[in-house]
Amino acid sequence: MACSFRALLHCLLALSLCSTAYGGQLTPTFYALSCPALEPIVRTTMTKAIINDRRMGASLLRLFFHDCFVLGCDGSILLDDAGSFVGEKTALPNASIRGYEVIDQIKANVEAVCPGVVSCADIVALAARDGTVLLGGPTWAVPLGRRDSTTASLSQANSDIPAPTLNLDSLILAFGKKGLSPADMTALSGAHTIGYAECEDFRGHIYNDTNVDPAFAALRQRNCPAESGSGDTNLAPLDVQTRYVFDNAYYRNLMVRQGLLHSDQELFNGGSQDALVQQYSTDPGLFASHFVAAMIKMGNIGTLTGSQGQIRADCRVVNSR
Question: Which residues bind Ca(2+) 2 (predicted)?
Fold first, then answer.
């Protein structure tokens, strides 16, 4: 009788997971029965990747962001150009995206244990969370059950991913188009407490803007020539204080006009987000809780569930029919 009851519970859980997915909702327990080893596999692979390259945590967090802003969180950013198929990797905002090979490795490790079960889109979401945690940031239960897109949009990648040159009103509009509030935007921007940016993305800010600390601008100018085309790919940390630690130092930087990107400093420049930036700069717990909530909200943008899309065998190509 006990065995029968246990089997019944498993059956009910499976039906619950199935109905949840088909209802368009995600759940952290989606793979509890079909691939219970999923999260340990992702965490182990991410740990090795970050030991090898400390920048990778920020890189995969950024990859998730860029995926969700184009067609939704569906893994479309991972698709390679092939024949007449044009993907999103060559879009201008994606030119410096890194970490595709880490997603490939996670996918291979997962497929070896749970073939044909876990989507590339869910792997990207988990990798973004684990990259944050492994650099000292908050953790959260990632809602799962996404399926992979069979399409991509180069034009939307070029138009919808917010540029580092945007002013506050344009940033609010860009995030609002994705259902994210100004507060969500300000919390998500805290991801810039880790990672690097290229000279061409912050040149205008350090040479032309007035809302930048002169000493900070001079520091960044040492590695970023004023002439366009010269040193464009030279790197600088988005957070000069703790570049490999996920904390609230990003907001403290903004308070003293040391945001690296024009779009960063726009969050604290006499506008509607100043008060929230000030709160985050002194309350790391508040920032962490708001960041987690905003990440979960962003992770629900345009998701494919149930019979929509597919589970790609190779994250770089659509399954052959």
Answer: 193, 239, 242, 247
